[in-house]
Amino acid sequence: MGSPMVDTLINEIEDAFAKHTCVLSAFSVLDPMNLPADVSELPEYGNAHIETLAQFYGTEQIEEFEGNRTVVPPELGCSVTVKNELEAFKPQLFMYKSVTMSPFPKAIAS
C-alpha cells in the first residue's frame, strides 16, 4: 500500500480522466493526420470536437472529488471565443499539413 496522499492523488487523477474522456478525444481535431484531404471539406471537419472543446474550456466547470467542490472559471474565455479560435485555426492546420506532410519532399529524397 502506498501512502494515503499518493493513493488520494491517484484516485483524483483517475477520476478526472474518467469524467473527461470525451474532452481528451476531442483534441484529435488538432492532429493534422486527421484533416480531410480536400480543403473544401474543411468547414465541416471536426465541428463536434470543436464544440466539445469550446464547451469545456469556455464555460465554468464544477469539479467535485471526495466531498470537495471547486469552481473553475472558463480557461480560455467564453465558449463562442474558443469555438471561433479553433474554427479559425483549421485552415492554418491544413496549410501546415500540406507543407510538412506533402509526399513531394520524400520523392526528392529518393
Describe what you observe in this structure.
With 110 residues, the chain is mainly alpha-helical. The chain has one domain (4-86). It has five helices and two strands, in the order αααββαα. The chain has helices at 4-19, 21-26, 47-57, 79-100, 104-109; strands at 61-65, 68-72. It has a two-stranded antiparallel sheet with strand order 1-2. Strand 1 and strand 2 form a beta hairpin.
Strand order of the largest sheet: 1-2
Domains, number: 1
The proportion of residues forming helix, as a percent range, comes to 55-70%
Could you tell me the radius of gyration in angstroms? 19 Å
Task: Please write the string of helix (H) and strand (E) elements.
Answer: HHHEEHH
Helix/strand-derived category reads mainly alpha
How much of the sequence lies in strands comes to: 5-15%
Number of strands: 2
Task: Report the average pLDDT across residues.
Answer: 85
**Biggest sheet character:** 2 strands, antiparallel
Topology:
Elements: H1 4-19, H2 21-26, H3 47-57, E1 61-65, E2 68-72, H4 79-100, H5 104-109
Antiparallel strand pairs: 1-2
Short summary of the structure?
By secondary structure, this protein is mainly α. The chain has helices at 4-19, 21-26, 47-57, 79-100, 104-109, and strands spanning 61-65, 68-72. The chain is elongated and about 55 Å long.
Keywords, please?
single chain, mainly alpha, two-stranded antiparallel ribbon, 5 helices
